[in-house]
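hey so u asked for the seq, here:
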Amino acid sequence: MITEHENLKPESIILDEVLPGGARWSKIIKRGDKLRITTKDGLGTLSAMFYNADNTAERFNSADTVKLQHNAYFCKGRVFYSEQGRVLLSITEDTTEGLFDAIGGISNPRIVAKNFGEGDFEHIRNRYYKSDRENFLVELGKYGMGKRDMIQAINFFRRVDVKEGNKLALSERRPQPLSYIELRAEMNVLLVLSNTPHVMETGTYNPSDVQLTLFKAAPVTEDDYCMNFSIQSKRAFQNNARYFA
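ran it, structure tokens below
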């Protein structure tokens, strides 16, 4: 059922659905479309991997994204680069105030068991504790991909701080309820999501639902905020233009 969304015209919405806690999701986002990811209660945590849908050998490059933007902390206006120097996704809106994580990585069954205790299918059936690795492998398999295609993920709605030079710590900051991130596809993008607790989270395994709203966006113009955010971004958008020429 289509829900009401601030600043969105109902006729522009292509898809609007809830991704339950623990679940996985994937879709090809067409160039120019946007995905709004909303944490209704402010407790959502989401991991993402993404690829050029027309050639999945081109995929998100975390190291280049950090290096070219001189920052491991993202916000509105930043972009996610491929290893070809092109833009896969742009951050067109962010009401979380920079709650992105490009450092922590993803969870696997061993880490989940360590952080939350045993929660296997044998004991709790369909409520078993899912990990990012399991979720990503299932979704990638739908596109003929597998372990060798696993890449560094971006985590949404959480942040990892670097303290004392080299110690990583999961920030206690959380977004406000109904906070969201909007991503615009700058090429046809295969986006794969895993809705599980952050890899550094501990305590009770209780991932929160997130809302996924895919919609048609206005065409990119010469004064686009993301394109003009930095010299590097403008060059990358020019690479995209040549790619589609």
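The chain has a mean pLDDT of 94. The longest strand covers residues 87-94.
lmk if thats what u needed
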